[in-house]
Fold this sequence. Notes:
Chain A has helices spanning 48-57, 62-76, 162-170, 173-181, 196-209, 222-231, 245-255, 274-279, 296-305, 322-331, 334-344, and strands spanning 12-14, 25-26, 37-46, 88-97, 112-115, 124-133, 138-147, 153-155, 187-191, 214-219, 236-239, 261-266, 281-289, 311-314. Chain A is α/β, with parallel strands linked by helices. In chain A, strand 9 (187-191), helix 5 and strand 10 (214-219) form a beta-alpha-beta unit. Strand 14 of chain A pairs antiparallel with strand 14 of chain B, so a sheet runs across the interface. Chains A, B: GO terms for molecular function: metal ion binding; oxidoreductase activity.
Amino acid sequence: MKKGDRYGLHRVIEPAGAMPQPAWRIDNTPICYSNEILIDVETLNIDSASFVQMRNQANGDVNKIAEIMRKTVADRGKHHNPVTGSGGMLIGRVEQIGEDLCGKVNLEVGERIATLVSLSLTPLTIDEILKIDTDRAQVDIKGKAILFESGLYAKLPADLPDKVALAVLDVCGAPAQTARWVQKGQTVVVLGAGGKSGLLVLRQARLSAGPEGRIIAVEYGEKGCQLLRGLGWADEVINLDATDAVSVMRAIERATNGQFADVTINCVNVPGTEMSSILATRDEGMVYFFSMSTSFTAAALSAEGVGKDITMVIGNGYTKGHAELSLSLVRECPELLRIFSEKYA
Amino acid sequence: MKKGDRYGLHRVIEPAGAMPQPAWRIDNTPICYSNEILIDVETLNIDSASFVQMRNQANGDVNKIAEIMRKTVADRGKHHNPVTGSGGMLIGRVEQIGEDLCGKVNLEVGERIATLVSLSLTPLTIDEILKIDTDRAQVDIKGKAILFESGLYAKLPADLPDKVALAVLDVCGAPAQTARWVQKGQTVVVLGAGGKSGLLVLRQARLSAGPEGRIIAVEYGEKGCQLLRGLGWADEVINLDATDAVSVMRAIERATNGQFADVTINCVNVPGTEMSSILATRDEGMVYFFSMSTSFTAAALSAEGVGKDITMVIGNGYTKGHAELSLSLVRECPELLRIFSEKYA
């Protein structure tokens, strides 16, 4: 067995010298290098933007969607939509573990895993397309995929439905980062606490800050707030538009007796909430931006504009142990399992 | 004296409830609230994008530029260019310090200061436009400005030329953050080390890491690299395009014997250098993005794509003591003073 590059550079064909994700074409030969994992694929979870684009291009015809998918993989060696630039993830069974990884990865041949790196960088072959679920953007196939040494994955738990596990894994970086940064007794503000990542973050914030901590959830809309109040994890639930910086500041000032948050975690899925996050946070506190709508320049310039000496962290989707931590959160909390089963599965 | 809001909300006219920066119009009455500072303005340093726009609109006619400036301030109560959205900063003399700030700010009436918050949120009146320097985008005026309680400023040092001080103050957050994060003995990579912020960061990194630390400077172009080698602050100077992630990774791997950087500081002024920063950094290390060209999503998705558990920090332009630290760096280092005098003043 030959050894490949940790990041998969040995499979890049075109352009030479690129990383696998930005590369146009990679080598999808389903033969394992000594530091790769070969996966027998069951299902592709296509990124929503990518699937909608293909469905439109195919006028909703599943046979044409299948044709587009085969062409993408034939052209590029990966399911990297050339129009949207996005990928998705996959579920499959471990078929082979390269010899250099044996003993290093906590995996056995035959186990079911979900990849946590994008399909846009994952070598993939499709032998047959079995079923296209147009509602869920899920495609059952016969095929093989390769996971690089640096590639992230999670074992699919036997005790949770696949779809619940996938929904949790999709945002598992956020609660794991919460566990890393939030200390016992701290005051934590969660913006957008009623969404998928917000719920996991809120639960973890309560656990990490402990009963002596103070947790404030901000969510827009009475329905979401009622759900959060019913859960009882936050000391206070505030119904507010997180783009309204002045209102958020005043509400958090009141809720914290003017102390503001030690840590603010932004899980809002709309743009324009940087200033709210900054104003909710005490001097020398920290803001953790998990929202993909965050603007780097808005965050940097807003903090300077109000003279706030705070640490602003870019949400890294990966933290060690993030998948296990998030799945445990759901496993150990019946309300969370119920909400994820009803809303996201 | 009435007391105003810390962030200047009491001066917002339109739209109600906005922060002063996004507000269309603010109250520029040059009368000090008890927590404001009144400044007798000498010079406006107009943001470059804003000045170019006005010069074009005026076909280069300084009288027309003056007219546009007066109209902007009359309409908005601040020199907030309605086309570019940008501001600039100003130099002036402290005329009055609100009574609630006396003893709290280290300032005296008559001292010369530069504001470190944008003109786009600074209440300003213009009585007379004295001189427009179209090469430097500097406008000497008679007028008054207001600094809010949260507003940042720096005393202009008597021992440095104004223009050197302004160039240093423009980027003073970067070396101050370097001093906060870099520890003795660490390995530090500075990307874009030959630019204005890069030079200050490189100098501070050497001081903070000490002789036992390892400092690696990456700069694109042989001329810049020769300058850096001549300074002798970096243990190694590498001539590389920071957008080429694979080359940067390999160069840093070699320069660090495969250990990579504890801290990587990105001062590059072009887009597309997020992956290089991530790959240059060791697992559980830190990347500090000072470049305004940074894309939030590129950083977040790149780290996940390569499974790198690192902390990525958004460069906050403000850190306590940032102006003093940066001016001292230049004052105490004749080479830095010479370069700033030649290149940026």
